[in-house]
Amino acid sequence: MDFSKGPGAVAYSEKSELEVYNAFSAEMAKSKSRLRGFNNYSVPQLTREEKRENGLKSKSPAISLMGRNMEKMKEAQAWIRRILTLQDHHIIENYHILYLGKREHDILTQLQNNLRVSISEIISLEKVILEIKGAQASLVEVVMNIEHMLCEVQEEMARKKELALWSLSGQWTNWQPKNQDEMKRNTFLKCLKLSTEEIQNQKKQFESCGFQVIKVEEIDNVFLMAVFQRKKKMVEERTHRDPVSHRLFQQVPYQFCEAVCRVGFQRMYSMPCDPKYGVGIYFTKNLKNLAYQVKNTSATDELIYVFEAEVLTGSFCQGHHLNIFPPPLSPGDIDSHDSVVDNVSNPETFVIFSGTQAMPRYLWTCTQDHVQPQKDSAGPMMLSSQQPWERFSSGSSVD
Hints:
Phosphoenolpyruvate Carboxykinase, domain 3, five-stranded antiparallel β-sheet, 20% strand, Mono-ARTD/PARP, Ribosomal Protein S8, Chain: A, domain 1, 10 helices, alpha+beta, four-stranded mixed β-sheet, globular, nucleotidyltransferase activity, 36% helix
């Protein structure tokens, strides 16, 4: 079921479609109780008239999405499309695969045996993936279970990093949350007006590089800021390079945006890239480089999430693919550089090896400039196996 192609491009029997839809629905029902974050997700029953209005035949399986958050609606749409268009082969790419323990590997073995699929783990410097092969209906259940498991691992890792951050920053901040749940409930994001002069100037930079800005949010996390300022003071005291920090950019998948706001930048949260300057956290100084990367890796209708950050670059040197931490200032020196770059004389790519060296300042939500998003409405978005995906409706006005 390839919705991106015109009618008649690929033919599937109604029985095949229904089997996949039923497998998806059954797995959603089993997962509903444990996927707490999906409590507001609903699939309302539509009348025959409503189905007809949306161009659906009454016998056609359909899913309705309702919501006012543009990002969540868009990501839900893309996720469901990936699930329902699975064939006999699927790739899950996620650095959190590295943190799967014995319990998780036992679950993978059980899924593999019970559903007669093949699950292979492939690890390289560039990416970490699970490759799954098997019957189409089985893949739906396997992929949903694995993605749920990875979400749990991601949250567990984020909470550990959050506790460490809390401990580090506790002595430098006046406010302390009563517990970690209270800290998590703080989204740390404040939506800004695009009409302000400062934001307008930055918005023009994005637009000149081929982005259409949908929304900009400011990150306000006192714990991250306290640790960052402490690190910045240390860098300023021992380096003679001015400035010690740069305004840099990083694209982050939507599923990790909240985590970055909570615990800062981590290699596992960034987009996969060729680690030719070292195994670290990559930032770019030039938005045009980011736009070129997006153009070659993202679908034209996808939302793009770009963090603008203050990054402590300090003393830097030429990067190398073997770097796992910054090289020493000189051979045998116990002090090391703060970062590595692509070109020492005119750097555009900076690589740091500690998340405490970067403070996320703004989160820019964009599209490629030729995509025009629509306004939000409270109505449902219909997903059908007999027609292309309908446009989703966005949230409240950003102006």
